[in-house]
Amino acid sequence: MILNGRMRAIVQDNGPIHRCKEVQQLWKKWEDMGLYIFFLPKYCSEMNPIELEWQHLKKDELSGQIFDDELDLAYAVINGVTARGKKQTIVHIV
């Protein structure tokens, strides 16, 4: 689907969650909504948009920091994603 000059797509890797019956049942609904369902090739993490975001997040937002615990790390990740979203580098990732 193209809306406002942008293609609307659901990009999925080949993880088990994306191939389970519950998700497969959604494919028809998504197609009926005009969404294009795109599966990445196996073992191509460099093509996965979320992997690129994690790479930038680690390099730009989390680099050089030391975290006291998992909660501090979680907040830093949330803040980093928020900062990258404000720069409009992330349109939407589920």
TrEMBL record:
Coiled-coil boundaries: none
Source organism superkingdom: Bacteria
Molecular function GO labels: nucleic acid binding
Location of the Tc1-like transposase DDE domain: 9-70
Name of this chain's protein: Transposase
Lineage of origin: Bacteria, Bacillati, Cyanobacteriota, Cyanophyceae, Nostocales
